[in-house]
């Protein structure tokens, strides 16, 4: 159901100027797909949709053209890491990041939203994030970038 709904969302935004999540819900209902606003919000994030000006003084949802590069830890990730990371280490293709208590989940969520080369996923506890990278080399490269950013 999720993949069908998300495919339909992509079709709808390609054919219509959808400005709000409520308009998205109405368009989905017209296609026989029922969803909640919270579900649509998650879909928008997962599909990497952003609002773009239409030129008529309104906005519409479109698929973002490019994600933030992995080497640019701007915004929330930079803040979380600079303020909250206490240490990190690499063991083959796994990176272990230690944070201040309570910040690991935020760090993991920020990482999950980035477009990091070789990033497979993360698992966060209270003060530790386990990051799985595709290769040992990419894990080491990621640690070098974190070290440079934290200096």
UniProtKB/TrEMBL annotation:
Compartments reported by the entry: Cytoplasm
Query: Transmembrane region positions?
Result: none
**InterPro entries tied to this protein:** Arg_repress, Arg_repress_C, Arg_repress_C_sf, Arg_repress_DNA-bd, WH-like_DNA-bd_sf, WH_DNA-bd_sf
Tell me any Pfam family this protein matches: Arg_repressor
Mention any one GO cellular component term assigned to this protein in its UniProt record. Answer: cytoplasm
Any one Gene Ontology BP term: protein complex oligomerization
Its annotated pathway reads: Amino-acid biosynthesis; L-arginine biosynthesis [regulation]
Tagged with keyword Magnesium: no
Cite the Arginine repressor C-terminal domain residue spans from the record.
81-146
Question: Which SUPFAM superfamilies does this UniProt record tie to the protein?
Answer: C-terminal domain of arginine repressor (SSF55252), Winged helix' DNA-binding domain (SSF46785)
All copies of the Arginine repressor DNA-binding domain together span 2-67
**The keyword Disulfide bond is assigned to this record:** no
Q: Which GO terms describe its molecular function?
A: arginine binding; DNA binding; DNA-binding transcription factor activity
User: What keyword terms does UniProt attach to this protein?
Assistant: Amino-acid biosynthesis, Arginine biosynthesis, Cytoplasm, DNA-binding, Repressor, Transcription, Transcription regulation
Q: Can you tell which superkingdom this protein's organism belongs to?
A: Bacteria
Similarity comment: family membership: Belongs to the ArgR family.
Role summary: Regulates arginine biosynthesis genes.
Put simply, this protein is called: Arginine repressor
Species annotation? Candidatus Enterenecus faecium
């Amino acid at each position: 159901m999720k993949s069908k709904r998300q495919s339909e969302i992509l079709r709808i935004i390609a054919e219509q100027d959808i400005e709000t999540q409520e308009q998205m819900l109405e368009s989905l209902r017209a296609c026989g797909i029922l969803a909640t606003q919270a579900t649509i919000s998650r879909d928008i994030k997962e599909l990497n949709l952003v609002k773009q000006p239409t030129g008529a003084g309104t906005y519409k949802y479109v698929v973002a053209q490019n994600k933030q590069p992995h080497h640019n830890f701007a915004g929330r990730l930079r803040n979380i890491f600079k303020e909250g990371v206490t240490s990190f280490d690499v063991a083959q293709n796994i990176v272990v990041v230690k944070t201040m208590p309570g910040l690991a989940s935020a760090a993991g969520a920020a990482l999950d939203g980035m477009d990091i080369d070789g990033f497979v996923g993360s698992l966060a506890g209270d003060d530790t994030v386990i990051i799985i990278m595709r290769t040992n080399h990419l894990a080491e490269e990621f640690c070098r970038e974190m070290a440079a950013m934290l200096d």
